């Protein structure tokens, strides 16, 4: 017994085998791989022979005597009752599209009249590659009057060889594309129709039915948040609001398939696709390209050479169709592009949704309710050490659903956000977070409520940094962040401020209680009681166009009975909408004396030549004024973003005005600058009437003009807009629009 | 004015530029990239000149007159009080390792005696590439008696030029590797010590201090769950438990750095690394290779050619060091490997943790409390359609911490699971989920509580499938899943059943209430009241060795006053521990008649030749017996896993028995089979006394034996084990061990 024996062979281990390792499979781990593709189908046999023999022998009927199916009519024309009743007529699709929990009709033609007592058949609805009755991926529907557990069927009409069958999918069934079969039971086995593409159907979420988790009991909101393609997204500054038109295009040809492809691409199990919580959470991850090669690549650098500038898009259709065909992330997006395309996804699947804009949105704070601004001992901002930023605005989505996973009271609007955040639970996704939970500080519930709470409730804390590196809080601004939340009003083109759904009014008892509640769940706040200066600093609201010189008038108000002297630092910066500074173009440090109970204006002249060459795409100027009151040592400060107004393109629509009559849209633009604009793209589209169109101009010299004309034929009536963007590296965010009403 | 003008140039858009697109940066999005590497350091200047001039002119002291630092002694030897007081003496490391919230000492030698009134200095602790006071990544500590907000310092001893300073890091400070500097304030600026590696220190979580979120107020548990390297992991079947030894090795050289590397690799922001909730959640994602190239590649196929078989590992050290040096995922793992390496990670960083084993663990159920078994109309199992499986056992981790993000009552033990699950929130990570929340059905709180709840509470539902494809539930087994949860007892080598921490006893009112609560949060259960058969079916508990023939005796008990006839189907299957069937090696269908109030035994002879060639690695046989009672139509069924016992290796330790005396370990093995074993690896290690060792044998012929001898020298006293595994494609899961006590 030793390892010298010839029968035991110790040796140097062999080198590892060469070549790629074998693909690790599910063998030994799961019985079947999880079905996660809606476009892979199972093989369903045309004839399923029974193992146990049925009646046989002489005198027994032959297979030929059983019911045979000659034809199935899905009743899928846009003007047939299925599509009108289910609010799906607008989808440009060759297939039947219905909503769950609501009856639709199909017509089946047999080889002979159907005999209730003798003939047994089922209409089968199958989704994904692993159909199972208990998972909801295989759903047989029988013509019966009994109440069935989930899917139900009944015969609504019979004539000759033809029956009309009403089918009601379960109100919580999987959403996606199903295959349909008709199966006839015979004693020999099941005889089934062949797979035929034309009988495929889409089943969507149904906000019109109370049993559906996305039920929204308000027809005007439903029309807006499910059926409306025309979007308005707000940006700019809270006191100088700008609008951006967007064509959600959720009914456009190919968009529905693209939305299903997004879920397939994320390998989301088919069986989870009936749950709007899971669908929206997964989609918030998939709309950005992080982690899973999702739809949109974020880019905030100003260099969009290798894609389309975020400011240039006019709608979601191009983006979704490009993603579905190229199977590669689309370049480039910023927050409103993520929110707009996410909105298309949600409305297309039937989940009520809207895009909202939060003005002064705190970011990357990771549930810590503070944005830090560091000043040196004299009150001047310390640019090297100030690393937090507040976005001038940030767009996200709200979607409407019940929340059975939470205690009662947290259903309704939910925040989801597809813009990749740095620190939302280590992942690039956010939500659904109950808006009501955010309002009440109930941050213990999934998903990411604390993160959204911080976006609307953070304090801005000014610290004075001592020479030894320690810091002292000198001022807390509790009202700067989350100033206003805007969304398009249902049913018209106006805006609506919904901040009251996120916060109780500033200064109320409820507001204080909520902040205390939030702290219980770990949100940290600056709580020092800080001395309030008796000097106020006020900056005016200004509307300025790009290229203008203007006066910035600082008002100093002394509320004390003594004279006050303020050593003031005025810093003018070009900023991205994310609050990140590009460069400082103006610096002044006046010393201002104010008599007792008096006020003084200090005028700063801002010249366009100083800021023009620094401008980044959204042309925001951020003024930060800080100062130290000599007599008291108090720090005063005020910040203001001024959004410079860009030139516009002029869009005009003429001719026609009726369905199927040709119309003309023209875009006009005059380069108002002395510089030549190069590599200019103009994009134009019109929700419901004009698909996306693009025109390229290699150069537009200073002062020159262009006119671009396109013809189009509207195919449906209604009020809408045609709008255009102009985009080039030197000038972005140029918009124009025309309202159009198409008569029937 | 037209686009024919030479100054406006419409044209075909240029082709996209060639070459790779530029790397998208953070420019315009965030001020600074998020620091997420513990091994990248910021440049801290040696002299930081003040912008504003200090006192100057004749008569002013020169820089030379200010305090200068000659030496800093970190007092980091294993037997010095820092390491003994902080329970870090066992770490094999050249650096100081301390725990947060608890004072440690350093000695600073100046160029002259320190003068309290005149000299100003700070000891600075810096972590990551973007040090900021307000983020806790830059922490200056002054020698003061004032209470400081977070980190504090005091002078504990002074003699000549040397002071001893006591430093207490904040009890919630970031965990990781810090750099230390001493900074002296002068009127000219800050004079700082050079970066010197030897002054780096690690700060860990501290379960001994009540202010730390991981405080565990039980010395015996703390010793087990933080300090113990010797692990026992349970597997096998709930009525025939097997043990596996594991060396967590959390104090071994390089392991702590490997754990920090794991967080760096996941790009976890440095500022989140003081929060045990975030650290454990991130780690549960990073321990598996899905999504982020994490530590371990899962493989359940039985083919481990390209790596180490999961059954072959003896400890975590090899795995962690390989990952940190190769920066590639390590092959291969199954659940206990994930749990064991995760345990090392947690204990190494100071978070109390243990590995637990759940017997009959329901999987891939996605919060749906049902595992479906499909029978045909006659009661025979339908293998093609039964797609759910129940793991014979599943291992996960519990870790101990407060949960400030949840309402009171949910702190304490938390489930985290690093084994990649299919459907935990779309991601391959799970937890932390409060054990107490699981017990009380409070599934609305993060993270993944519903998923873990299903693992221990699912019902097994037997369906009878009708010919038309519909299904009817015929039997529900509510007690099969989550039969027992075992973990190693604190302080000794015995096991402890902690199922009462997860569930109220079967049949109690509390249990029913909890299940109802869980249903409120969306867990679906089979609720039909099903008829109970009056015939019981009982399978015996058997202990069988691989290669044995044995009798399986089925007992039929008739509890009625009439005769009963049961058409029975007995199916014997080789299964993976995941409950997935490899192949059916036995099938019988006896018809059994039982007299009124009588019982009958039906004996099935199982021959090894039938199962041997099908065996997969853990050699489990699963018997499913189903039957239909002719007289009543009721379905009866019973399932049982029989774990075949493998041969063992014999480990013997001799000689020495004292610290620093050489000892000898021998491994003996005899191949009990007639076949030759090829490509055999034997691994051996001993927690605290022997590093991992491996021996390779190209072949061991049938009946032959081997002896392998290794010498080792223990460096510390205590009771421990030396254990070995033997592994080859034809035979896995062969273990052996020897207990050893080392005297001082």
Automatic annotation (TrEMBL), chains A, B:
SMART domains: TGc. It catalyses: L-glutaminyl-[protein] + L-lysyl-[protein] = [protein]-L-lysyl-N(6)-5-L-glutamyl-[protein] + NH4(+). Keywords: Acyltransferase, Calcium, Metal-binding, Transferase. Its EC number is 2.3.2.13. Ca(2+) binds at residues 457, 459, 506, 511. GO terms for molecular function: metal ion binding; protein-glutamine gamma-glutamyltransferase activity. Residues 327-420 form the Transglutaminase-like domain. Binds 1 Ca(2+) ion per subunit. This is protein-glutamine gamma-glutamyltransferase.
